[in-house]
Known about the structure:
Blueprint: H1 9-30, H2 37-50, E1 54-58, H3 61-71, E2 79-83, H4 88-96, E3 100-104, H5 115-121, E4 126-129, E5 151-153, E6 161-162, E7 165-166, E8 173-177, E9 191-195, H6 198-208, H7 229-260, E10 275-276, E11 282-285, H8 289-298, H9 325-331, E12 334-337, H10 345-359
Parallel strand pairs: 2-3, 2-4, 5-8
Antiparallel strand pairs: 1-9, 6-7, 6-10, 8-9, 11-12
Helix pairs in contact: 1-7, 2-7, 3-4, 3-6, 7-10, 8-10
Amino acid sequence: MIEIPLVDLRAQHEQVADEVADGWAEVLKTTAFINGPQVARFESEFAAYQEVPHAIGVGNGTDAIELALRALGVGHGDEVVLPANTFIATAEAVARAGATPVLVDCVDDTLLIDVDQVSSVVTSRTKAVVPVHLYGQAAPVELLPLGLPVVEDAAQAQGARRNGVAVGGLGAAAATSFYPGKNLGAYGDGGAVLTTSDAIAESVKLLREHGSPRKYEHPVLGFNSRLDTLQAVVLSAKLRRLEGWNQARRTAAQRYTELLADVERVKLPVVLDGNLPVWHLYVVRVPERDRVLSALHAAGIGAGIHYPTPLHKTGAFAHLDGSYPVAETSAGELLSLPLFPEITEAQQTRVAEALKEALR
């Protein structure tokens, strides 16, 4: 049986293999493995693509959130608001900065942060909110309480737009991840902080480099979180193709919507008005999700779950007790279908038929 993966990284690599090999050969020749010129070049290219003045490469997406928060002055004793339905890294970064994550629920149709709940949890200790641009579409940042600094978690939304504005420019800063499976993925870990603020950009640059503006000067306590040169080569090669890949994802998402439109037991994803999504994931909701998932796997379909456990139900954040009914209910229904730019109509038809069969 020919399997259909959740993500096909091999197909993507084949499109950039020669360009990456040439770029890596140049890095190996010059041995500029850390802070090579390719890093600055990619940062400039990515900032231009996201339509912001600054993109600062860092070690991974979790570091990107933490360093953005620290650059805003978030630290011990502070609180940061975020949705219960997100990957644990969002809350990890808040905790690592020394602050306390404060959860709110998500809305039932899009599963994005419930902006109406944010005001009810804001206190004098609240220093920022981290809305998550989930599954490839932007959260309604403009509806968040005014005056509250926003750090966008844009790990799943490279190239997405909200009311015509590219993610990364919707708040004070944004954090993104270049984990291999992302729309723009490296061949290892990597991330970046995006911002329109010169001051935030300079602070992140200082923090990522041991708190050092120049060698052996350390005015502040920093970290070692740099995007390495080999990864920058990969990311530049992929960035040149990202807009086409994102459009292919939109086409594939529309095809799924058409294939599954008449399946009563499947709740299809909803795009929020004003959003141009990039469909990092195509997430449906189904009854008896675990049984359906097992049936799909048995049929060679690489479906997944994003995410099976709301943050307050994890061991790490069990102390964040509370009731978040939408996040809790949807966690047992979520099902991510295979989606990548190269997926074919035949593959999607087979996925749809397998899902229908599993639901019978």
